[in-house]
Structure formats: structure tokens, C-alpha cells
């Protein structure tokens, strides 16, 4: 290239750079009045103003656009006093937001809103100031959150409750959103409550989510003020969740209640729960001070019936400390009357069935506690093999006839390991030394046929076989002057036999009254039956089941070597007893205008049975005690009455000043040995009149705070005040050979009444007619608000005086946050 040649290459300094546009997309505007200030690069929109930019639309009374600052400002409509009466409506990604003022930076995508109303899932957030950092994160200052449906739908300008926080962060993702707050307080009807949380996380998702569970609060006389059910909920994977609750009392008592649920659809489900705590009563240093540890361990497991029809497993385990219900740290045990429990049982069961074999094998491990005695019964393990009932002979014609073709056989085996022991001896050497093992087999044959068309004749025979590993030896100890029961370790067994025959028929009788009488007829159905039972004397020396010893008084006394064992003892003495039973059913027909047929049946006695027996082989007192049992119902089957009466046919004589009598051989006196009557009567508002059709009677219908009423001409509200009252009464008298019998008599009431469609009062009480004392009594009320419920329970007197106050939110999103209830894998929503 020549030296003086011209260089046509363009210098970098001369490169033309195009300035990037401030907007990434077209901005559309419209309004009734538009004005452009070119020098200031400002656009002003007045009345019915609208701006559309990308996926966002802003509708307001006034909008300004500043091109220098890349800022869009919108304001709602003002009244004559300068108050905003119509909000700014901002719509983005299908979500609608209402604010008084709104500004948006088109470059940074950030926005600031004042008095913004944001709807999320089932709730709405109203914040004094909201800053949008991006499409996913919103920061809010002085914000209220509520799920009040009326407020959300703008049927009311004030929500019935809200949660207030000074700072809230709303995080929005594609699949789920959540609110994160600092301290947050609950307000009811604008009144602040003591319900304050240090923080809260509200995930808007249908999935289970972790969070704090809010307790109920109240006071109990013996342990002080309390928080009951404060805890935390944590889902664990797809099949598990964990809940840990705590009960805290001001006088020092505490209780921890972990609970784990598990579920595998179409297979099984179950729950592990525990109660571990310390009960403190009284003041330390004084005589009434006590401190006791309590525990409860429970496990339930249920297998889906479709999972495996041939092998099923179930568990219902509930083990408590002996005085657990005397020291309840969970107040629910008081309100549910669990404190009256006298025993507790647990069982784990495995059942095996076969496709082609008529056999069912059941294995069980069970544990039973008696709180009165402090003893526990343990069966570990217990196995039962049941063979399905079968006929001994085939039918020749296809229809079974006669005694032979109707013979059925029932048989099975039962293996049991059993021990009764103290709670502190469980699974120690002392317990294993006392454990007994027993094997029993039962074979039962039965048949029946019809005789002379009207009589059913039945025959049966039963054979029992038993083996056990321990027997009893009784003897008199002259050193200590006592009778001694010595358990010996050796294998022994017995076989017993009994047979019976019975004859039964049914008789009908009808008593008709004159035409026009109020009572048209009385119908009587009687079912008499006779039976004869025979079994030999298994106490005779030839069997070897009974032995004799000389007791402390020097009398020769027989006893069974199987006494106090788990396989029972063979019967002593020959039984050749003729038994009878007379069943009765009595009804009457009366005229009734309410019945379409003109008559109505009234049951006088649904059943009235008389039974007893005479033992021909007995050396004394061949007649048994006679039993009479009756059952009936009155007032359209509302009043149920159950009665029982036992009569001793032999005379009982008492020596002067004696409290126990002697049964003589004088027959025919029929003294009352026991009597019991139970009555129950459920009353309700429907029984005392037809339900009023308020829609027809009062055409004016209105609504007050979500409650529907019907108004008469004087503008008085009318509604259905439904109520129920269940009355239960019991009287029991037992005498036996005692000169003075014992009586038990009580009356119980429980019911509820609706003061308004959403106010409900309920309660229950029992009065002891013998001691003249009120027993367990509970009073409660509930208020169903628009978006939450209030429950109050009170036990005013007795051993446990307690009241409990509880607020629960209805919305799924808060149902576990502000209310402790059983969670399940099918329940959506999430707690704080």
C-alpha cells in the first residue's frame, strides 16, 4: 500500500451506538382526558384511566407516567373531602389487587402500593404499604390478614376477625405461595386478644405443611391456669406426619404429647401417641404438696380390608400408669369423662384364613389394667384355632330333615399364656414364674327337628378337654395357723361332658274389645320352652380332679386342683336339671287419628321372660333362683324401660342381731334378691309439635351477621330453636343373704339448645339419689361466627374444677393454625 494512501477504516470513536429503549414492550394508555407534557416527558390520564403494560393492567381515576424516572403512578377516585372512594385496580397474571395509590417502575419492575388489598387462596391481606420487589416477593407494612368470607366478597366493610402484623412478606411461586411474618396478633371484632405468635408461616398450598398449633386456655382449680395443646406439626415424607403438643400449668405441672400418624393407601393406617408429664399439686413444703409422674402410650393400627383378605393385622394398645386418670394433665380426659375409667385394655391381633381350608387361626396378645386393685392381666400369646361349623351327615334329598341330617359340629382349640401381676413386676422373673399355660379344646354337637308341626325339638352335647402347666395344692399350716394355697408346676388335664335336650313352641292369643272402644284388641305371644341338662359328678374320686384337705377348723374340705387356673375347673355334683323359660310379647291396638289406617300398635312388653330350673340330682335347694326380665318402650318408642328381678324361692332366716341370713329348705317364700330398672327418654323440640315452616308463615326473610331470620309484620325475628334433652335413670337393689340390701339410684341429664341459629348451649349432669350429691357435671357453649367458632367448656364442681376456652378458624388454610384438631393425610391446609 502506498505511504500516502487514504485509510478508509472507520475508527471506533466514530461508531454509532443506539440507545436502549426504557420500555421493554409497548405501553397502551386510554382515558377520558389525556395530556402530554413534552418538556418534562410526562403523560397525565384523568377519569376512567387505564394503562396496559406486558401482563399488567392498571385502572384508576388518575394515572401519571414519568418517562424520566420510568415510573407509573395511579390514584383512586376522590370525593369532595379528598377521601378515596374508589380504589385503583391492578391486574397481573390473573390476580387482582385493590389499592388507594399505586406506583410501578417499568425498569426495575418494582412497585409500591398504599392501602393495598391482596387476595390469596381463601384469605385477603390489607396492608398500609406494600412494596413489590419482583413478581415473586412482596413486602407489606402494618398488614391485616383474614379469611372472613363476607369481607372477601365485600358484603361487609369490616372483617369479624383478622391477624395483624407490622411486617409481612408474601412469596409467590408457580406452584405455591406463602406468607412469612414476625410477631402477629389476633383481633376479634377489632378487639385485640392475647393470642400472639412470635412468627407465622402461612403456605397457600393443598399439601401438608409444618407449623405451630395454637392451644386452648383456661384455669383448673388444682393445677392453675393453663395452655392446653400448644405444639408443632411436621409432615414427614408422603406417609408420615408428626405432632408434638404440650400442656403447661402455672403451678408447675407439665405434659408432653407426641403423636405420629402413618398412612399407606389401600394398605394400612395407624397412630402412635404418648402422654408423658409431671403432676404438681399443692405448695412445696406444705403437707398437701404432691409430685407424681404419669404416662400413657397408645398405638392403633388398622389394615385395609382389601389389602389381604387371608391375613389381617390390627392393634389397639393403650397402656397407662396406674393413677394416670387420677392425675389427668390433658383436660380433654376430664371433658370426655375418661377420668371415670376403672380399667384399660389393649390387644394386638393377627388373623389367618385359608382359601381351601375351613380353618381360621387368630393370634392375640392382650393386656388389661385394673386401676382399683393395681393388678394387670397379661395374655402373651393367645392363639385360637376355629374350624368352621359343618354337618356330620349329608342330606339325601337336598333338603335336611330329621335329627341325623341336621347334626352340626363346632370345634376348635385355644392356647393361652396368662398371668395376673403387679405393674412393677411386668416382664420380670417374678412375673414369668407366675405365668400359666393352658390348652383347651371344645367339641359341640347339636341338632333339631320339628315334632307334630308346632314343636321344635333340639339335642346338644358338649365335650371340653383341657391341659395346664400348673395345679393347686391346699393344706393347713399349723405353724402359722393358716390355710395355704400352693401352686405346683406340673402338667395336668381334664375332660368333661354335658348334654341337653329342649322342646319349644309358640302360642298366640287375642283379646278383642267391643266395637267403638278406644282399645280394639290385645295380642299376646308366648314362647314357652323346656330343657333338660345332664352332666356327671366330676368331683368323684375316680376322676382325680378333686382332692380333700383338713382346713384350720379341722373340717375335711374338698377342692379342685384346677382352681385359680386359666382352664377353669370341672363342675362338682351331678346335674340333672329341668329348666324352663317363658317368653312373652304383649301388644295392643288403639284408635289413632294420626295413623292412615286409623289404628296404632302399642307395645306393652316387647319381651317379658321368666326362667328357672329344678335340679333333680341336688341334695339340697334343688330349685334355682327365679329370674324375670322385661323390656318395653312407650310414647312412640321414645321411653325405653329395661327391668330385671331375681326371686329366691327358699326362706331366708336371720338370727337375732345377725346381718347375714341362712337359706333354709322351706320352699315358696320368694324373697327379692335383686331388682334393677333402667329408663331412658330422649326429648326434643320435634316431639312437642310439628316443625314450623317459617318460609310460608313469615315471607320476609333477612340476614344478620350471616344468620338467617324470618320476620313478621312487626319486624320481630323468628327461627327454629331446636333443643334436645336426654333423660337417663337407673335404680338397682341387691340383697342376697344380707339383712340390709344395697341401693344404687341416679338420674342423668344431657342436652343442648340453640339460642339462635349460631348459638348453642350444651351440658350434662348426674344426680345420685342415694347420697343426694351431684356427680359429674359439664356445661358448654359454642358460637359459630362467620369465619371462626368459639367453644367454652366448664366443669363447675367435683374433683376436677376446670374451664377451657378455645377459638378455631373455619378456613382450611388456618384450620390447624388456630385450632387443634386431628390431622389426617386427606385434610388439606397448613398451620402457622
Automatic annotation (TrEMBL):
<dbReference type="GO" id="GO:0009279">
    <property type="term" value="C:cell outer membrane"/>
</dbReference>
<dbReference type="GO" id="GO:0000428">
    <property type="term" value="C:DNA-directed RNA polymerase complex"/>
</dbReference>
<keyword id="KW-0804">Transcription</keyword>
<dbReference type="GO" id="GO:1990351">
    <property type="term" value="C:transporter complex"/>
</dbReference>
<dbReference type="Pfam" id="PF19838">
    <property type="entry name" value="LptD_2"/>
</dbReference>
<dbReference type="InterPro" id="IPR045659">
    <property type="entry name" value="LptD_2"/>
</dbReference>
<protein>
    <submittedName>
        <fullName>DNA-directed RNA polymerase delta subunit</fullName>
    </submittedName>
</protein>
<keyword id="KW-0240">DNA-directed RNA polymerase</keyword>
<feature type="domain" description="LPS-assembly protein LptD central">
    <location>
        <begin position="179"/>
        <end position="650"/>
    </location>
</feature>
<dbReference type="InterPro" id="IPR050218">
    <property type="entry name" value="LptD"/>
</dbReference>
